[in-house]
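Researcher: Structure for this, please.
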Amino acid sequence: MNRRKIRFIYTLVLLTLWPTAFFGAAKMGWVWQPLAEAGDDEQFMQAVVSELKRDAPPNAALALIQNGVLQDEFFVSQGQPIDRNTLFQVMSLSKWVTAWVVLTLIESQDLQLDTPVSEYLSVWKLPESEYDLDGVTVRRLLSHSAGVNSGDFEGFLPNQDMQSLVEFMTNPADGGAHGNVRIDQYEPGTKMRYSNNGFALLQHIVEQVTGEEFEDYAERKVLKPLQMATSTFDSEIAKTRSLTKFYDTNGRLSIHRRFGAVAPSSLYTSVTDLGKFVLAHVSGDTDELPGRGVLKPETVELLQRVQTPEGSDLRGLGVAIYGNTDAYTFGHDGVHFSDPSISTDARINPRSRNGIIVLVSGRRVLASKLAMEWDYWEMGRVQSMLIVFKSWKIVILGWFAIIIAMIALRRIRGTRS
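Model: Predicted structure, token format:
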């Protein structure tokens, strides 16, 4: 083997080992420290506020929950001021609230977690599939393990006619690359793969079982009882309330998109209301039980238990679980990558009753990044995606350094010979 091939192989090995070694070191906590000392919520809040000011999103709302109390808040606004009651369209974070809507029907026994959902469908039927449709259950839909195709929702433009939910599930016209709702990913219950369409199907099931529009049932059974006074799944109602402006990533005013299925992606809520919802998962200071009378405490406990197959991402009923069964936080994020750009995240530690809420307009991943920083500070562990967010530039610079070093070494050896 000649020297050129040997150098080429060495270079490839170094280019491969560099990100692997860096990622491993970062995962062990050797590269970055948390934003603040453990337990120092004032220092952490100052650090997160500095991050927000540095990034300067057009609109953002931040709240820190400490020991079961919505304690610290911070707001960023471009133009129209925002406050704790300003509504944000929170995208996929909506699924967490939708899970509560579905679970009210589990408790009333109008739905069963493990009954094939085909038993609840009459107006619309699951398309034929090579997989077992009887394996599609409410539990698996809530935990993204039912084999439903993804559903990359784009949203309808302001001048577009909206489709009915059934039309949207059958032949969506919002421009998203998701197609009709179908079971074509894997045998239900064998894997976990994130699915917006699965929650569109849950919305339809709720409407079939209750005979009500999802928006109305959600308000009557979850939003109002939790005193989420300004929150709504109805875009027309949201427009009449204190709704934030929408922006693209360049800080320019953007459009307000509406969605053919609201349950997966179209809750409008504020820091105040979302704080009430998040805190409803833990005991209150005045003998308030988890669930706050909307759900039983044992149902709230079930929601945060891992429901996905071993080896999959950890998912409960409508929530992501971060950590392990012994020490974990849980919650959900939301994102809209195209215009408008939206980023949201909310999480809580059920043991400490600490949590965070971040709602952002005009950025794609900022809320999730800050929530992951909170998770690192709260739990002392680094999430893989936080490493990706913080290190991709360093990895690229390292690759360039390796290539330049190998070129320089070749020239030095050439000069000596």
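Researcher: Any notable elements?
Model: The mean pLDDT is 91. Residues 1-32+382-417 form one domain.
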